[in-house]
Design a protein that fits this description.
D-Maltodextrin-Binding Protein, domain 2, six-stranded mixed β-sheet, 2 domains
Amino acid sequence: MIVNARMYSVTPAVGELWQELLANVVRASGGNHEVLDYPPPQPLGPLWARDDKAAVFMCGLPWSLSDRDDDILVAPVPSPEEYGGEPIYWSYLVVPADSKYKSVRDTYGGRLALTTNESQSGYYAALHMLMDSGGKEPLFSELVGPTITVPENVKAVAEGRADLAAIDSYGYDLLSRHVPELVERVRVVGTTEKTPIPILSSSGSPSPELREAFLDAHNDSANSELMQELLLDRFVVPDPETYSPYPARRARVNAHWSMHRLSATENEALAPNYG
């Protein structure tokens, strides 16, 4: 069985912190699960589809849509006060720091960067927010991507390849701590609504011992510095029902953008996933 935190390994160094934390948790559980190295740009879909997951970070949207027998092991609670001690997150809408854009609306006609059409924070959150603005004319000239990861989505804006991007708030916070020079090159002009944060999923029934080790991780002194660097307060077991609105919201977004044009040019890799 594998454990993996690829979703929030925003740099190789941060990935090493996650691997150390996961190894500590596995050790505390008495298990022998493999801490799997799965670096980008490998797509997350095949990782999520594995049937040997003991604890793998997974976006809540594809989890809620899956017909696989996957369950929630735990979810992280980020430590910044904006999260209010809850397993939630949102998306930041960012523009180039040196641009004249003051709002999301100011970027219309420009280029929108998106991670992947499997993503809540890097895709559907943005398209849901933009639904009120979609009319007969396309909102953007081009869709940039799939950028796959949070850092690459930020870089698309920072490097001038895109005018707007939707960024997972927890991933953005990790970048702010560990790569501040990158985050300084973008500026937040909007936020989406708060939604349930990605989970650590398991194939089939979760291991009670592994779950207990995650729930107690913040009490282990061996994890104190790691969790501080990872901006983690603790892990909790979230209510699965909080993820249940995702499929209906996705369906509304897909229906809307099947009738309105998001971009003047086609990008088949970023077309809404109607499956």
